[in-house]
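Usage

Read records sequentially. Each one opens with the input sequence:
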Amino acid sequence: QVQLVESGGGLVQAGGSLRLSCAASERTFSRYAMGWFRQAPGKEREFVAVISWNGYTTYTDSVKGRFTISRDNAKNTVYLQMNSLKPEDTAVYYCAASPGYGTKEYEYDYWGQGTQVTVSS
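and closes with the structure output:
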C-alpha cells in the first residue's frame, strides 16, 4: 500500500507560481511512475503531467511550458512546479502512483487526498 500526501497548494494571483509536493510512504517509490491530475469545480478530473521512474515526462497541452514535474527518489517525493498560473488552473490537484506509465486515471493504483490551488484574476 502506497500512501501519498500532497502539500503546497494555496491562493495565488494570476501570473504567479506555486510548487506542489507529494510525499510517498512506500520504499519502492522509485519503481512507480508518478502523475498529477486536477479537478476543477463542476468538471471531471483531468491529467496534468506524469514522470517515469527514470525521469521521462509527459504533459497535457494546456500546461506545457508552464508546469514542470520532477521527482527525488531519495526523498520519495514528486513535485509539480507551476509557473505563469492562470485562473483556469484553479482546481484540486491530486498526485497518483502507477506501476506503468500513462495519462488515464485507471492506470493509477494509489491517490493522494488532493490539495487546493486557487488562482485569482
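Summary fields computed downstream for this record:
- The mean pLDDT is 96.
- The longest strand covers residues 91-98.
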